[in-house]
Amino acid sequence: MPSLFSVALQLGPIEIGAILLSGLGFLIMFGYSSATGGYQDLIKTTLDNDDARRKKNSSNNN
After folding, report:
1. What are the tens digits of pLDDT across the range 29-48?
2. SS3 letters across the chain
3. Which residues contact 12 (CB under 8 A, 6 or more apart)?
4. What is the pLDDT of residues 18-28, one digit of tens each?
5. Nearest CA-CA partner of 19 in 30, 29, 32, 5
6. Residue 23: domain span
7. 13-18-24 Cα angle (round to 5)
């Protein structure tokens, strides 16, 4: 299958290697961040900021 892409996109072995390396790096980093729960802090901060904005807007409207 990679040879099919290399013909269609005219990619050499260096380009295919770079694509595979960056894809593997992305999967490793995604798996690591999911396993450590780093995304939970982002979600909590986003929800806290949204709540603060809603309270501020509702107090300004009254």
Report:
1. 988 887 877 677 788 889 99
2. CHHHHHHHHCCCHHHHHHHHHHHHHHHHHHHHHHHHCHHHHHHHHHHHHHHHHHHHHHHHHC
3. 6
4. 999 999 999 99
5. 5
6. 2-61
7. 125
Number of domains in the chain: 1
pLDDT at residue 1 greater than cutoff 60? no
- The model carries a pTM of 0.51
Which residue is associated with the tokens 């901060």? 45
